[in-house]
Amino acid sequence: MNHVDVCAILNEKPREVYTTATSSNLCAEVMLPPVGNKAPTLLQLHVYGKACDKFKDYTKGSRIYIHGGKLRFDLESKTYSIHGGIIASVTEAFPVLNDVILTGRCIKDIDQTDARAFKTTADGLMIANQTISVNTGRNQADLFNFYAINTAQDKLNQAELLVNFTRKGTGITIRGRIVTDAWTDKETQERRSLTKIQLVQMTLAPKSSESQPKPVASQTTVASADNVATLWGGKTAEEPVDPWNHASGGGLPDLPGHYGSAPSFDDNDVPF
Predict the structure, then answer these.
(1) Cα–Cα distance for residue pair 252/231, rounded to 1 Å
(2) What CATH number should be reported for the domain holding residue 85?
(3) Does residue 79 lie in a domain region?
């Protein structure tokens, strides 16, 4: 699973980008509002198919809500982007949402002796970093670094759970927020930033079992009404544009540096 629901502000007017000689999509830089004491997050948003008809009329500064997009990470440039989904114009009254759900497998064991992977602070904070590999649907995968942070008073210690229960190859579904840390390099005095996913919830995949589940027989008959009431003024639900599916008018190009087959990972692959 790869599902993103976020609010953003356009930093530029959408521009046309050709993915092949005969196919194009619209692209624009967007800014996600900061989470807590974090910095704003800059991403590239790619819109496909019929969604481009409305998106092309948006202007710099437009406030939008992106529902059902897919998050991608370019391992070479270490940049994130969002592809597809339903794009809607919103006002300041709309709540600021930042929610991403990813399903995949952990690519490493967490080394408690490595401060980049696990550390505790004098204030009682515990921080654990893990990386998840998410299949992009074409025998390839994206890597996403995420972290859990807890205080000693928290009832549910996600950082400790990551250390104790995740290993290389562990199946996991995470729900989190896209956040960005920003700082000034002490040596070069340049402004630097790092975007990661802050863990909110996680579910580990069930352990494999040799027993096969029994088929579930339907025991309920749902009655149908002859006259269906009109809802929402006759509008019907929109289908999110899936850039993984060429039939939707997408045709998502591979990101630079991606693997041509199912990858095997080592510690050097971690997008820190």
Answers:
(1) 34
(2) 2.40.50.140
(3) yes
